[in-house]
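input
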Amino acid sequence: MTIDKSNKFVVIDVETTGNRLQDGDRIIEIGLAVVWNGQVTKTFSSFVSCDRKIPSFVSRLTGITEDDLMDAPLFSELAPDILNDLDGACLVAHHIDFDLHFLNNELVEAGYEGFRGDVLDTVEMARMLYPTLDGYRLASLADQFNLSHENPHRAGSDAEVTAHLLLLMLKKLDALPHVTLQQLEACTTDMYRGLHLWVYDAMKTARTRHRKKASTYDIYQDFALKKQTATRAEVKATIPFNAEDFFGMNGALANVSPSFEHRDGQEHMADNVYACFADGKHLIAEAATGTGKTLAYLYPAVVKSREKNRPVVIATETVALQQQIKDRDVPLLEKGLSLPIEATVLKGRSHYLCLQKFAHFLEQIRGTRQASYDEQLSAAQLLIWLTETETGDVEELNLPNGGYALWDELKSDPESCTHSNCAFFSRCFYPRTKENARQADIIITNHALLFTDHFQGTRTLPAYEYLVVDEAHHLEEAAGRHLGATMSYQHFMRLYNQFGVQEHAGLFADISVLIDRHPTAVSADWLSERKRELQSLHHEWNQLFTVLQTAIVKNDKRTREKSEVYIPDDVLNAHVFDVWKRTEAGGNDVIRAWRSLIRTLKNEALAPAEETLLQKVNTLCNDLEEAQTILASLLTSEEKNEVYWAESDANKRPDRLRLYRRPINISEQLAGDFFSNTKSIILTSATLTVKGSFQYTIDQLGLTNAQPECLQLASPFQYEKQAQLLVPEDFPDIRLDGEERFTDAVAHFICSLTSCVNGRMLVLFTSHQMVKDVSKLMKPHMQDLSYSLFAQGVNGDNRSKLVKQFRSHERSILMGTTTFWEGIDLPGEDVRALIIVRLPFAPPDDPVYMAKAKQIEADGSNAFSRLALPRAVLRFKQGFGRLIRTKRDRGLVFVLDKRLIQARYGKVFLRSLPTMPQLFAPAEQLLARAEEFYQEYQEDDPR
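output
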C-alpha cells in the first residue's frame, strides 16, 4: 500500500559500533517512530546482533554492552517490518546521512534494496526554522522545546523525540505566511527532497488562508515581517534616586528578585556613579566579581536619562555582555522600578540586514544565479527570521559557515541605505534602530562603535553627555585598534571575488544582463576590457604581496607564525615602490571605469533591481578605494608615534601576509579628544588596579589631569572558604628545562588531576602552540580517563561553541588562550578546577608591547615594572575570576608557573588575589590535597 508522502513519516535512529561504515562498523540498536496524519502512531526499538565488538567509548555513551546483544535479533529478522513501515513514507532522521547509510548497508546485507524514497533531515529543518538557536543537537532541541528525552543516545528515545520535534516543526512551517513560503520554495531546491516537498505543499495550502494570516505580520514587498511596536514619543516620568531604597535589604529589588542578595558594594557603587553624574566627574570603579556592578550603574544611568530627557550610553567590549544587559539586567531593573525602560542595542551598520539587497538576491536565485547550499540555507533562515526579529541584527543568527560570505553581500551600507533610492527604507532595520536609540533611556553599544562614532564623526549615536564604559580594561586596546589600520592579501581577494570575473556568475553576469537591456549605453567590448583590467590588477596584487613578503619577513627557520616589525621607509625600496605604484594605478583604473558605467546607466530608465545592482557596484568601488588608501597608509606614511608590523604563516606564503599599524601611546588623544568632550564617564571592570592602585589605568588612558574619582569594591564572596591556590614547587622551569619537558609535565599533571576533580576543568594557556602540544599528548589518554577534551585551535576556534560543548559533558576539559581568560561565565558545577599554565606576560616579540617598552625605556623608566608586570597582573586577575562566579561555587586554582613563588614580582600577583588558603608544595602533595578538597566538596554538596 502506498501512502501520500505528505501524511506519513518514519523517523529512524541507530546506535552503532562507530561512525566508519567503510571500516566495518555496524548497527547495534535501531529505533523507529511512525508519524501519520500529524500523530505518532507507532514506536519501536530493538537491539541488533552483530559480529563486531562494542568499543568502550560507545558503551559509556549509550550504556549498551555486549550482554545486551547476546539474544538480540539479526537485522535481517527486523528488516521486513521496517520495510513495511517505510512503504510510501518519507524517511526522517536527525543527521539523516549517518542513519541512512547504516540503514541501507544493513538492508543490502540482508538481501534487500536500499531505501530510495524521499528523506528529510531534522537538523537541516531545525536550522532553517529556528535560525537563532545556539545549537541543533537533539538533546539541546529537546531541552529548548521541553520534549521528554529520558534516554539520550539510545535509539528508541532519540527516534521518539525526533518524531515529536518533527511535528513541532511541521506545525511551524504550516503556520508561515504565504509570501514567506513562496520565497522559501526557491531556497530549498538543494535541500533534502522531503523538506522541499513539504514547503511546496505548505505553500499551496497557505493560499487559502493568506488573508487571514496577513494581519499577523507586516506584509511588504513580498516579505512577511514581524510587526514592530511603535516607539513612544511622550515625555517620560522622572525617577527619584535612592540607592538604599532600591538595593537595600527590604528595597525594591529585594521584593521582585527571588535570587536577591544584599551587597553593600552594589549600593555604594550606585551612589558613587550618581554623584559623579551629578557633579560632572569621571569615575574609575573596580568592582570585583559578585558585586553586581551592572545594576549598580544601570539604575543611576536610567535616573539621569529621565532627568535630562536624553539617553545615557553604555559601552561594552563583548557582544555577550551587551545581550546580557538587554535580556537579563534591564528586565530586572524594570521590575524593581515598576516602570518600562527603553533600552536599545546599537551596533555598526554592517550588523544589520539590508532588505533591498536581500530582495535582489532572492530575485537572482530565481533567475540566473546558482546559489550554493549554504547560501540557500542562509536565505531560508533569513526569511523565517524576518517574521520574528525586531532588530535585523546578524548576532541573533546562527548561520552556516558559508552564510557569512552571503551576509557580506546583504548587510546594510551607506550606498544602499538612503531614503531616496530604497523601496524598503520605511522598513529598514538600521535607521529604525537609530531612531529607537534617540528615544531610548539606555543605549547599549560596543567600544568599537563608540570610537568610530567619536573619532570619525559618523553620528550613529545620538548626542550624549553621560557614558558608562564596562569592561574598561579593554578600552585602551580598543582605541588603539580603531586608530590603527590593517590590510591583507585575503581582503583584496575577497573584493576581487565579489566582482565575479567568471562569465557565468557574480557581478559580471548581472552587469552583462543589464548592458544587454541598455545596448546603447556602453560599447560591446566594455565587459571584456573590464575583465582584462581586473585580471591584470589581480596579477599586480600577487606581485606586490610577494615582494612585500620578501622585504619584510625574515628568512629564518622558525616553524611558527611570528610578527615582524618594519619601517615603511625601509620596506618601500625602488622595486617595491614600482610594484605598489602599478597596483595603485591599476586599482584606480578599475574604480574609474566602473564609476563611469554607473554615471552612464543612471541616465537610463532603470528598474528597481537594476538600481540596486548599481548601488552594489558603487559600494564595491568604495570598498576597493578604501582598501587602497589603507594599504598606502601602511606602506608610505610613517608616523612617529606608530608601530608597523607584518604577520604571515609558518610557510611564509605571500597570500597569508597581513600588515598592521597601531599608535604606540594613545593617552594624549584620549585625554584631549575623548574624556574632555563628555560631561561624565564611568569606567568600570573587575580588573583595573595593580597592587591596590589605579595608577596604571590612569596613565594608560590619559586621565592624569582629569583627576577622576576612584572606587575599589571587594568581592562579597568568601574566598577563604570557597577556593584555594596551589602551586607545584617541583614543576619544570620552562626557561631552564625547555618547553618540551614543561609541556610533558603539564599534560601529565592535568591527566593525574582528573581522578581527583571528577568534573569540569578549565585550563588557561598563553600560547596557542602549547595548547596544541598538550592536547596532542593528552588525547590518547582521554578515553581511559572517561574525559572529553576540547582545545582551542584543535576542536575549532569558536569560543561560544567550545564552551557549549564543554558544558554538555560532566567530565570535560576546556583548554584555551587569550579569549578564554575572560568573558566566559561558568558558574557552579561548570568549573571545579582552574589551571593557569603560565603567568600571562605579553609575548616579548609583541610589536605594540615592544614599541611601548622602548618608549618607556627612552624616558628613563623600567618597562617591566611600568608595563609588562601591570598588564600581566590584570590578565591574571581576569583568569582567576573564571573560577568563583557565585556564593555557592567552590574550587581549586592551580598555577603551574613557579615564578609565582620564586620571582620577586610573584608577590605582586599574589597580592592581587583575594585572601584564601595557599599551598606551595610538590605536585604529588597538591594532588593529595585536591583529593581531600573534592571529597569534602562532595560531602558538603551531594549534587
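quick obs: The radius of gyration is 31 Å.
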